[in-house]
Amino acid sequence: MTTFTIIVIHRPPAQLADCLEPIATFTGGEHELYVLAPGPVGDRRQGAHGDGLLPTRVAVGEDPRELVLATNRLLQTGRHAHVVLLDSAAVVTDGWLAGLGTCLATAPRAGMISPLANSHFAGLPAALFPASAPASICEQTAAGSQPHWPGRRLAERLPAVHCLAVKTAILREIDFLDETFTDVEAALADLCLRVELAGYQNYLAPDVFVATVGRPPSNRSGKAVRDKWESLDPESDRRKHYEALSLCAQARQARQREDLDQAVELYLKGIGLFPAEQKLYLDLAELLAAAGRYNDALQALQEMPGEASNPASELIAGVCRWGLAQPELARSAVDRLLANAKHSAAGWWLQGALQLDAGQVEHAERSFRESIARDPGFGDSHTALGKLKADQATSEEALEWLERGFVLAPDGDRNATAYHTAISQGQTYRRALPYFANAAAVCRSSRRLRYLLIDILLNSGQPDLAMGVIESALVDFSLDEGLLAAALAVREQLSAGPLPESGAAVSSCLIVRDEEADLPRCLHSIKPVADEIVVVDTGSRDKTRDIARAFGARVFDFEWCDDFAAAKNFAAQQARAPWIFSIDADEVLSPLDYAAVRQLLPGDAAGPVAYAVTTRNYLKLMDVIGWQPNDGHYPEEAGLGWMPSEKVRLFPNDQRVRFVYPVHEMVEPSLEAAGIAIVACDIPVHHYGKLNHARSQAKGATYYKIGLKKLEALQDSPTGIRELAIQAQTLGEYPEAARLWEHLLTLEPGMVHTYINLGTVYLELGEVAKALQMARQARMMDPSIKEGHFNLTLSMFYMGDARGAIGILEKVVAQQPAYFAARFILAAACCCAGEDEQARAALGKLQHSSLAAGLPEAVQTLAQKMEKAGQDTFAHALQTLIPG
User: Fold this and answer.
1) With 60 as the cut, is the pLDDT of residue 333 above it?
2) Would you identify the CATH topology of the domain 4-228?
3) Which residues have C-beta within 8 Å of that of residue 880, sequence separation ≥ 6?
4) Could you give the CA distance from residue 343 to residue 340 in angstroms, rounded to a whole number?
5) Inter-residue contact 161 to 221 (CB < 8 Å)
6) What whole-number distance in Å separates Cα of residue 706 and Cα of residue 723?
7) pTM of the predicted model, to two decimals?
8) H or E stretch covering 295
9) Section 240-253 average pLDDT
10) From the centroid of its chain, how far is CA 386?
11) pLDDT confidence of residue 138
């Protein structure tokens, strides 16, 4: 029986040879290698594995779902004890297979094991991680640039799926891949989740580095997995277990951010919802014990359902009794723990700690060493030995033990604090730098580790790298005035440097006011493509200006005059680069698009050009014209979906190019007047402002008032009138919105969206006949626009024709299954038409979606509108749609 089977899953456009050659170079030990590749097998001899044998080729069809089926067949019929699933975009390094194998063999309840990857370093200064550069991975690793720590691992809920190692016995236990997935990446992500749900722990093996080359990370697989599990019956045990573990994961992240109150709140929420889930109680008790709240931790253990005594609960109880200075009770807990789990490294560590407190130094050292022998990857015992040796004045040996303890378990507060104290006393900051940098990368949610890394960089004389880490911390964690003050102090030490002389240099320009919550994320997102950042402040009363300076922006003041165009033109006048990129503080640019932005510049066009960009306006609503569901491509996605809007964002720094209109400002008219062509590009900007309803409404009211005040400045501009009408509609100023839309019809009589919006406004005003007329006109003008059909059915419904609405809605839903607003109205229309079974079926699908929580309120609102429209019978029927 072979030790390992390696299955390479080839997904173009990755180059298969780039994956197979490093496997041949760096893979030793007993293994067999399979390659799953689309199309005919042919004679493709791109690589061989360690013992000189060519890989076994398995041909699959071009349909991506066939990769899932083929992978399952190979897993089910294999004779391997362990398996590695490797994406063809992966590049392995020396010792990769042995490292994964060690982690599988030593980690407690090991489930899926994944290696360190490029994505772990994203957002942190690249200079901290030379091995993360794909071009030099193999050379650096082969030269032994990275130390090896046997048994090193970190718990990780959902590992990266480009490389996964697992015991075949676990796969058999949980029934291999779920073949309902059409994408192998989603099937693997689901597999990782099911392994955790089965009671195993997934791990990251930080000593193993496997890069991904040529394929940017995607969020689609995560969305597909969430859709699967969130579609389960909320009352089913599987769904409850999934939700409980999700809450545990959220609480752990809150804990790492040092937001203990939120972590406790999440655990208590989980216990209230899922009182039978033991893990919620154990994790809460462990958190409380680590925070020194020993009595609260013991209370959580006491309330835990099921068997009161198990190794995990006995360990926590022992730690609590130790912390409460109750050594006899603590020793009793340790005795029970080791009696039931004599191989428990944590049990031996706690026994050693108790012995050390009792002055039994030799016994304590033996216990710590026994703990390490039981599990070389248990960091706390290494740290304990380091402290013991420090007390014995063996400083170098003590430092080595403390170093091992930290590297093996950097997420443990005891280990990080002890090692940082030791290197601070010895002023050995540069020695510790690679370990803290690695720890900050693999524990991305840890505020403490990020702050300690900043301290080490500053003390080792590297303020430029410290500034990059500070910026990442300002993005990832809530605003900390101490960190912001440090950021400003460090920024003062750094010189800005001249702009590059290239014609492709870019100035990113923003106007801001009181944007401290959003600005760090925005500035961090644009720095990789901006050669300078210009921030114009219009009167902030918070930390906005300081944040901008901390990110290296040039900050200017502008006296607000109720004119967004004037403010943006002032910002453009400060720009020194030949290109300007305009963005707002509540928007970001995705790292997936950095290369594409740079490729636009300086451009090959015969003359100057500007680029129109799609803004993804993320929403918690769906009944908006043009609404699109999130597809999971971008990690930046938020809300339930997004509404697109188009505007020029990237344009030449030309005096003729200026913003116009006091609200909803734009440069398109001046570009047209200057003869500068506008080219559409498919690079989106992600906008989150509409997700904060209260703030969005407040901003909208401000824009609306300015627009009304300066209506004459719009000069009958269709664009300006349209934006003002949208603002009035959003604010519920329906009579004014109707007047503006009607005016727009005289300016642009052939625009279908005007008819749709005017129909929506008429419905809100109760003028159903007019709404019906607008919907019919829109449907006749462009039958492909789904909102025209929706408004027609809603008008029919309000007029009492539920059956007529059903006929149209069924066709719309069949063509647009993600159009949830139509699916909701279909369920309501079926209910009102007496089609109870069809109504329950339509509603049932919605109740198993992310919309479930908002359905009762939506039904109540619709019933009120039906009553207002004079459809009392329908209003009464809707009250029975959702029982209770």
Assistant:
1) yes
2) Spore Coat Polysaccharide Biosynthesis Protein SpsA; Chain A (3.90.550)
3) 831
4) 9
5) yes
6) 12
7) 0.86
8) helix 294-303
9) 95
10) 37
11) 37
For the residues 418-444, what does the mean pLDDT come to? Answer: 93
Number of H helices, E strands in the chain: 38, 20
Distance CA 535, CA 725 (A): 29
DSSP secondary structure string, 368-385?
HHHHHHH-TT-HHHHHHH
> Is residue 474 a contact partner of residue 531, using CB atoms and an 8 Å limit?
no
User: What's the rounded Cα separation, in Å, for the pair 96 and 26?
Assistant: 7
- Written as one string, the DSSP assignment of 115-173 is EE-GGGGTTS-GGG-GGGSGGGHHHHHHTT-S---TT--EE-SS--TTEEEEEHHHHHH
CA distance 249 to 244: 9
- How many CB atoms sit inside 10 A of residue 391's CB? 11
Distance CA 660, CA 568 (A): 9
* Separation CA 406–CA 437 (nearest Å): 12
* Section 386-397 average pLDDT: 85
> Please, which residues have CB within 8 angstroms of residue 730's CB and are 6 or more apart in sequence?
697, 700
pLDDT bracket for residue 677 (50, 70, 90):
very high
CB 168 within 8 A of CB 75: yes
Tokens of 257: 């951010």
Torsional class of 101: left (φ above 0), alpha (ψ -120 to 50), beta (otherwise)? alpha
For 665-699, give one letter per residue: b (16+ CB within 10 A) or e: bbbbebbeebebeeeebebbbbbbbbbeeeebeee
Whether 495-691 shares its CATH topology with 711-878 is answered no
Is there a cis peptide before residue 40, judged by omega within 30 degrees of 0?
Answer: no
Q: Which residues pair with 506 in a beta bridge?
A: 579
Q: Options 3.20.20.70, 1.25.40.10, 3.40.50.80, 1.10.443.10; which CATH number does 711-878 get?
A: 1.25.40.10
